[in-house]
């Protein structure tokens, strides 16, 4: 589904990604682990179309990223993003925050999704009325509402306790079993183990395939 060919990225003269080639199949759950600075965020930014690489190619179902005509449309139709710091809007309710991703989505669908995440009772709350773990789950709901084909999550549990972190990874597992491709960057080796495949990055290279 995602084909990465000789991907290299420099920030000025610093090489952050060093000639990575990799194929990711539809429905796979992949974890990238590695020390801070190993290139995880840069790789995810490139794969999720947020950053143009210095050289090399990325294909999504054989479509080269450089040939995408309408990037906003492409992202809306295909990609869900989850970051460590979720950007919920404080003056909008949980429901309104989720509607930012899709104006036409029915309340019923939002309720069903929130219920899967165990937070259906929070639908009309404001972000400052709920806990950090609950806010993270709202951000995840917002990433999922359009049924993206692939979800990119960069340190999605960075500000969660271990219990909530595990819940998030269990949800990823469940989604991947239903066919959603999940690509996560994490420094947490234990959580990473819930994926089908783990790749360790070192100095911008895939150092080791662990599973
Ligand atoms: P990780 O996510 O594994 O911590 P990053 O992809 O953030 O790794 O960083 C890889 C390398 O690229 C590091 O050496 C980092 O300092 C550098 N880097 C990351 N972002 C930038 C940036 N915006 N400008 C310059 N250098 C950057
Ligand atoms: P989490 O691990 O999900 O972040 P916390 O330990 O922070 O949860 O909170 C436990 C419970 O306390 C939550 O289920 C939530 O109902 C409540 N809570 C936490 N923070 C807040 C807050 N800022 N405002 C209102 N309720 C909160």
UniProtKB/TrEMBL annotation:
For this protein, the record's InterPro entries field holds:
AAA+_ATPase, ABC_transporter-like_ATP-bd, ABC_transporter-like_CS, ABC_transpr_LolD-like, MacB-like_ATP-bd, P-loop_NTPase
Mention any one GO cellular component term assigned to this protein in its UniProt record. Answer: plasma membrane
Query: Which CDD domains does the entry mention?
Result: ABC_MJ0796_LolCDE_FtsE
SUPFAM superfamilies cross-referenced by the UniProt entry: P-loop containing nucleoside triphosphate hydrolases
Q: Name one Pfam family in it.
A: ABC_tran
- What keywords would UniProt list here? ATP-binding, Nucleotide-binding, Transport
Q: Which residues form the ABC transporter domain?
A: 2-211
Q: Under the GO molecular function aspect, what terms does this record hold?
A: ATP binding; ATP hydrolysis activity; transmembrane transporter activity
| Signal peptide as annotated in the record | none
Q: What role does it play?
A: Part of the ABC transporter FtsEX involved in cellular division. Important for assembly or stability of the septal ring.
Q: Which family does it belong to?
A: Belongs to the ABC transporter superfamily.
* Name this protein carries in UniProt: Cell division ATP-binding protein FtsE
Q: Which organism is it from?
A: Arcobacter aquimarinus
**Taxonomic lineage of the native organism:** Bacteria, Pseudomonadati, Campylobacterota, Epsilonproteobacteria, Campylobacterales
